[in-house]
Amino acid sequence: MSKNTPITVARGDGIGPEIMEATLAILKGGGARLDIEEIEIGEKVYLRGNPAGIEPSAWESLRRTKVFLKAPITTPQGGGFKSLNVTTRKAFGLYANIRPCLSYDPFIRTKHPKMDVVIVRENEEDTYSGIEHRRTYDVVQCLKLISRPGSEKIVRYAFEYARAYGRKKVTCFTKDNIMKMTDGLFHKVFDEIGAEYPDIEKEHWIVDIGAAKLADTPEVFDVIVMPNLYGDILSDVAAQIAGSVGLAGSANIGDGCAMFEAIHGSAPRRAGQNLANPSGLFLGAVQMLVHIGQADVAEKVHNAWLKTIEDGVHTYDIFREGVSKQKVGTKEFGQAVVARIGQKPVKLKPVDYSKAPTRPLTSRPPYKRDTAKRELVGADIFVFWPTGTMDQLAAKLQPLAADGMKLEMLSNRGMKVWPGGMAETFTVDETRCRFQLPEDKPGSISHEALERLLNRIQKAGVEWVKVENLYNFNGQPGFSRGQGQ
Q: Rounded CA gap, 251 and 432, in Å?
């Protein structure tokens, strides 16, 4: 008999304990070979004064089992509490978020009866780095970080997933017509790695029109890979138009650990009423079973769940007069699935996990860092300038340039306002001042030269609040121009 697999389980907050109980009952009924360690996370831990929402002992359990089945949690409102989901994903390097979104027509209402899309979402960086600052009275910032190794990992995972599960096409969504460097890098990596998979069709969409197409005609997509923010938003959209966000499960995959969950929240208003649909968490648990090598159990319980849906045994959220046959509670839904273990759906397509991959999809070639020549050629110095005109600011700053640099541009909220700014442009109390070596004069400057420049600016009575160094890579600018420059 196969050895049991240790997993860590957290029952969470709100509806979490109820849907976890139903999910575990189905797994047990299907013969899942599990040794369960339970941990406490979420609201109670937060309110005991732990801003992370998880105790050190719980981290130790995750390090031991490397598999986490997690119910939704409640993060208390107010400052100081960080998202446990984001913390867990980043702490354990769970870089790939996999969210299958498919319809169950005609048993669950949908306008897209042929929809079968898998969202592969980058899970660690982008704006979800959570690096935010208030810099002046008017301006706050959130840093969008896209890295080459992070992009390579998620893009390769998307292609490996498509190949492993017999899918024909991988689509990339970005906004690189505007964010030419960050989203541009993600798109470039997609093109580079995609060339290694000639058996799979590849395409790229700008995210806004791609989202519109996904909402209108999702059947033209197969696997979609996206940076973190777009993936988070559009996986919820995809799940909802397929039938319900409440039906969607999620896998968070890293090189050593994995976390499985529903994509919905803790719904505290529904807690303790035996109403909630456990399907999202259950379908996350099905992904877990495949991940730990128990595809036989995954196939058995998943088909039993499909038969339950097909038989019209539905919780309140998907119940429809004339289609549903029986409205049941959380516990009773789980019992209905257990009663159908060994059965397969007739109208819905049965699942077949007999060809599920046995190798880890996280395998990939070693990362090779770029060796381009990197030269410091200037700085964007953001200054606090609450009063006065842009011409007055430029007049103060121009005489301060030295070491071969000159004041190239002032911009406000990204829009060039000097030289040749427009009077109609709205400005705030922070202005970007670009000091740079002339583009037609190759060379570099020292960090000491920038320090001297900053000192001169401060002594001139202008407060600088942030500095972004400007680098050339093999002579090509590693920075964007100002809007209108």
A: 41
